[in-house]
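Model it.
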Amino acid sequence: MAFIHDDFLLSTETSRRLYHEMAAHQPILDYHSHLPPDEIARDRRFGDLAEIWLEGDHYKWRAMRANAVPERLITGDANPREKFNAWAETVPATLRNPLYHWTHLELKRYFGIDELLDANSASRIWDRAKERLSEEAFSVHGILRKFRVNVLCTTDDPTDDLAHHRAIADSTLATRVLPTFRPDKALTADRPDAFNSWVDRLAAATNRDISRLADFVDAIAVRHDFFHQAGCRISDHGLSQCYARDCSEQIASRLFDQARGGTALAPDDLARFNSYVMLLFGRLDADRGWTKQLHLGARRNTNSKMFAARGPDAGFDSIGDWPQAAALNGYLDALARDDALPKVIVYNLNPADNYVIATMLGNFQQPDTPGKMQFGSGWWYLDQKEAIEWQLNALSHVGLLSRFVGMLTDSRSFMSFPRHEYFRRVLCDLLGRDVQQGLLPDDDGLLGKLVQDICYRNALHYLALDTKGQG
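Modeled.
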């Protein structure tokens, strides 16, 4: 039997029935990704597996480093075939790492390849995939059609002109590709060069001078409206923890002037200023009916030597251990007091905080939207089988699994859409095992609706995104 077979990860009869009859045929709503919109707009074609599979994939890069692969064969100047061969030689060493599952699931779903990847099979797999990649079905648009991606949300800086999104909207692509408002650079006033460079870009994007806090606030509101007109309905923030310090407009104005003048804000002042700005973002989202995403807990760029050599997002980030409860409570409470609490999805990177965050979100549910406060799917280091189950269990035990908005890829690779299948199989197996143990009723009507809702329908209704009439 092939490693990736029809019942992969499905250990009970109920699991298999739920997956094959209820989950497998659901379309994909990928509401958080880092896919480049320019490549979607030009319908990029990929020449080989190194291009489509290894570019930007820091999951694979970390595994290769752990396997003592030289950096030249990872992010260096080696040719594509050399890099692929280095990855192929690493794959057998990834047993029990989720990369082993993902690698073979992706080879199967994209190219129909059942053979295990290793040094001996590398040449055959490279040639077979390269031949298939020349087909029209393997352009970016072809891949989106193949995996029935109805909606795809990219991650975009507020200063972006969204020209690629306009080009995509004007194309014949059936997938609705929407921007996400990601204003992380507004929170960098401890690094005046970076902060002022971004504020200057914001000024250019809004055709106005930004010399005072009021100008800054107005410019952000203008870009928020610009993104809304382009179909954006989701914002996103990557934070170590929430900002929830008291900060008056007067203090924020003084701190803005200091940063704009080129003086770095000290940690306490940065926390105050960023708290003020994050409340602004929350109110804008609430006014527009957007969903706010908070990605909490990553410790980024930990290896200073490699950060200097390779830059960010190169595989030198890890789980952090900041206390989350007080800061998250303070942020949500401040917005709720002002009747300005938007829909919120919180993604947690430290599994020790799963119950902290899941219970905290339950404090702020509101009757205007079922499941308004969402404990988001396992992400980054926690988007593998065990940690997906941890997140599902925590949510189930202290909240409503039935209202969960499900999985996303959070990926820079067009080879990552089988992550949805992986999640759906894990979900169905968890439910099937519960049925087998007598913890859930053996009722396909009840469980089938739960599965279909989590796989697609909950996100569709919760996010209120335009799907070009697709269902």
